[in-house]
Amino acid sequence: MSTIGIRGTFFDFIDDPWKHVGKEQDAARFHKDGLLVVTDGIIADFGPYERVAAAHPGIVISHIKDRIIVPGFIDGHIHLPQTRILGAFGEQLLPWLQTWVYPEELKYKDRDYAREGVKRFLDALLASGTTTCQAFTSSSPVATEELFEEAARRNMRVISGLTGIDRNAPAEFIDTPENFYRDSKRLIATYHNKGRNLYAITPRFAYGASPDLLKACQRLKHEHPDCWVNTHISENPSECRGVLVEHPDCEDYLGVYEKFDLVGPKFSGGHGVYLTNGEFRRMSKKGAAVVFCPCSNLFLGSGLFRLGRATDPEHRVKMSFGTDMGGGNRFSMIQVLDDAYKVGMCNNTMLDGSIDPVRKDLAEAERNKLSPYRGFWSITLAAPKASTSTTSSATSRPARKPISSRSIRTAARSPSRGISRSPPRAAGRARSRKRPTCFSA
Description:
This protein is α/β, with parallel strands linked by helices. It is built from 15 helices and 15 strands.
């Protein structure tokens, strides 16, 4: 048995800041001098240094000075095989996929190309303080295999799966529902719940999925109910119109996934920019999650996610944040918060009555304001709640949680200017100028 201690300044959350309007600091926890005790990779104790150190005499302690230690960031929506085309210019979603994405993702059929790409991808995540991600791969099993293998070597938490698509993409890129089902079964048996790997049944999006492919997803979900379902939903206006053409018996985008029994507590839909109020309510009722991807929504011109609607306390939808790299042109979750703040403020202006008094909704306008508390909570403790998984942030509570071997990371060398460079005030403490460090659990 090996026990170590990590001493330093800690900041994390014990509750949802959106529940504490005007008193968001009540949701946070701050230890200017704290101690985290880890036994065989499991968090055994955490709290103020003097109390915790007295309970564990003689342990070896690493003292991390001049940093603020925060939970490892969780990226709820990201694309592994788009690493090399990050920032591809000048198109909205559907032509962007045809021009840039599918040709690049095809290259991930080559194992050497995929293996090198996976290493770059995970290096970039860790350098940005991200220790857990939910990732799309490609239509070839090779990319999924290489991602799980490399993540296991690094002891990172990854939720991923073979990305299914059989429509509206180049012929050499799509695959049949039969092959998707067969390959997914093999990958689930090989990787799901092996180490820290978790498997997501992954139809890319309803626009690229035939009814037969979605039936294959439905079959997989019934056979493996502990697997996640990860997809896209209501990202772009042209995509949304196309979905109803491809699935004319469905009234809206969410209805396509509901038809095939995919929407539930382990369902995660990226974007949700054009979800209707009714779709938000149905997602809330079924415990499904949406992933807010502001960098991508702005870079591809997709639109403004209604943050205040998703956080309506009467119909709250589980939510995490994602970079959506490479539609999102960055890996850093800090920069995601920067863009999320801007999206929220645009929505705030549209709802405060200054543009259209008829649409005035001051409560929803206020919920669109992404304070530092709401922001940091959303990329740490909120994300595992959204996925109902064991990817919980290390200091979210003093329970025993696994800690990654790549446990202590500097969050970002260049934090965004739009978010405070240090976590906000908590429980009356003075603001620190220390830089953040991340650890995973």
